[in-house]
What we know:
By secondary structure, the chain is α+β, with helices and mostly antiparallel strands. It contains eight helices and twelve strands. A hairpin with a 6-residue loop joins β5 and β6. α6 (173-187) packs across α7.
Amino acid sequence: MFASGAEITMFADTGASGVARHRHPAWKVVLSIGGRVEVDRYGGRPVVAPGVVVPPQLAHTCRATSAFVALFVDPWLLCPGPGVTRLDEPAVRRILAALGGVDAHGPRERPDFTEARAELTAVAGAGHVPDPRVLHALRRSVAPGSLDAVAADVGLSAPRLRALVRASVGIPLVRLRQWARLRTAVACLPDGSAAAAAAAGFADQPHLIRVARDLTGRTPASLRRPPPR
């Protein structure tokens, strides 16, 4: 199951699953449904818990032993942390309940991201609101046009905008733009991978696949249930 809101994107799977090494530019919150989540950070002991919060830009692999829900949260919404945070079973249950509840297979079809954000903030702490020019640049990430045009919208040069985003969010603008386009592409996948790539501004389907593997450790097709035949 895939669902995307303005600030949170959700992927849920009905069984155990694992992903290859990757670095995502968002907070990732993985909530097991009756099992455990294991995060391997390379160079340290694996973190094993009912749920985890993985900070942006941390290279890692991730595995769930049961059905699970993964929430990808915009990087400025939660309080910065140095490493992976363990979530105990009560915290996992509260976040899942805030989404609208789950059964053994996952969440309901229309998750409540507003309530989930409030619960995540209570667990992890609130982040800070970026410079309005940064938010504008990120909203324009999937729109047609060059970075120069986006920068001109807010009265900056492209290098100055990149520096502002890095200082405000802590993540390179190029990766945030890739992330925004990937979310759009996955939402379009029922129309076909090639069409999804074009709709989201990727050069071609292989480009989309490379970015998906780099940011999520998965292929785009594995993030979205195929359409019924």
